[in-house]
Design a protein that fits this description.
Layout: H1 7-23, E1 50-55, E2 61-67, E3 75-79, E4 84-88, E5 93-99, E6 102-108, E7 113-118, E8 124-128, H2 147-157, E9 164-168, H3 174-183, E10 186-191, H4 194-206, E11 213-217, E12 230-233, H5 237-250, E13 256-260, E14 271-278, E15 284-291
The chain binds S-adenosylmethionine.
Length: about 290
């Protein structure tokens, strides 16, 4: 298998480490413990008094939860494959599970979505998620692609003014905005997070390319991507794998798929190029190019 990168995991680990350090000063309280959890269906995100934990692995996951700093006995919970645990959480919670034969624990914050996923060594770990919607896949949390990597993606994709770019999970819209500004190409960015779609629209306006780009707030696994000539992703490998049948079904022969850091599992034979580069902060990134 090609040189898999762990950029997102590292970024998330840093977030989790930083989060752990920050929350050590907080103390839990049971105030509002009886208040009903109101799931914000419109945003599809956990309410401020809820944590969602999704199981994106291929096995049942066992873990314990206890409010941070509480002397209470941790509650043991099990999560089936694909299920979402919605936990009432007024304050920070400590989650613990077994990894490499020993217990590891992290702090989880109210109002945030998390997922159990495999790490690059195939072990189950907790990652920050993107949303808590039960009716949609969580393809990856928001981590933006650095500008120099965006430029490399389009250089390798040989984009021009006739390109039609679809960015699956567009974040702040930077990928389609870059292609519109640099080549005059049309682009569609899709993201499930309304905050990201607002940022994308603002960015397009700021760069004066609103007429060339469109942003859709929806589950990208359900969007028709057949008009694309170039598809871009910065998603976790299991998400690229999940999308592969959609690529095979909907994309025209000759469509270029460019992925940041993570391969499309099962498409080894379709890979036509790749490049590794270092961003201004010294982090290495790999771009993979596939041709349908
Ligand atoms: C790693 S970010 C990539 C952002 C952007 N493409 C870039 O490279 O800078 C992944 C994005 O996927 C979005 N996402 C996660 N699940 C999604 C889904 N089911 N449908 C649409 N977007 C989703 C997240 O909200 C997040 O903004």
């Amino acid at each position: 298998m090609k040189n898999r990168k762990v950029g997102v995991l590292i970024a998330l680990s840093l977030i989790l480490i930083a989060a752990g350090a920050a929350c050590a000063r907080k103390t839990p309280s049971d105030r509002d413990a009886k208040a009903p959890i109101v799931f914000d269906a419109q945003r599809g995100f956990p309410s401020p008094k809820e944590i969602t934990i999704r199981n994106v692995t291929k096995e049942e996951v066992s873990y314990s939860l206890v409010p941070l700093g509480s002397n209470a006995k941790p509650e043991i919970r099990k999560l089936a494959v694909g299920a979402i645990d919605r936990v009432r959480a007024v304050d920070t919670m400590t989650i613990a599970y077994e990894k490499y034969g020993r217990e590891v624990s992290y702090s989880l914050y109210p109002g945030k979505p998390y997922s159990f996923r495999y790490d690059s060594g195939g072990k189950i770990d907790i990652w920050q998620g993107s949303h808590g919607r039960g009716d949609a896949e969580d393809l990856a949390p928001f981590v933006p692609t650095p500008p120099e990597v965006v430029a490399k993606m389009f250089e390798l994709a040989k984009a021009d003014k006739d390109s039609v770019i679809y960015d699956i999970g567009c974040g702040d819209g930077r990928i389609v905005v870059y292609a519109a500004k640099t080549f005059g190409a049309h682009g569609v960015g899709i993201d499930i997070d309304p905050a990201r779609i607002s940022e994308s629209k603002e960015n397009a306006k700021k760069e004066g390319v609103e007429k060339l780009v469109k942003f859709l707030m929806e589950d990208a696994t359900k969007t028709d991507i057949s008009p694309a000539t170039i598809v871009t992703t910065y998603l976790l490998p299991e998400s690229n794998e999940l999308l592969r049948p959609k690529f095979e079904r909907e994309l025209k022969p000759g469509t270029i798929i460019v992925t940041h850091n993570y391969i499309v599992p099962g498409w080894e034979g379709k890979e036509i190029n790749s490049a590794t580069l270092t961003d201004t902060s010294g982090t290495e990134h790999t771009v993979f190019v596939y041709k349908k």
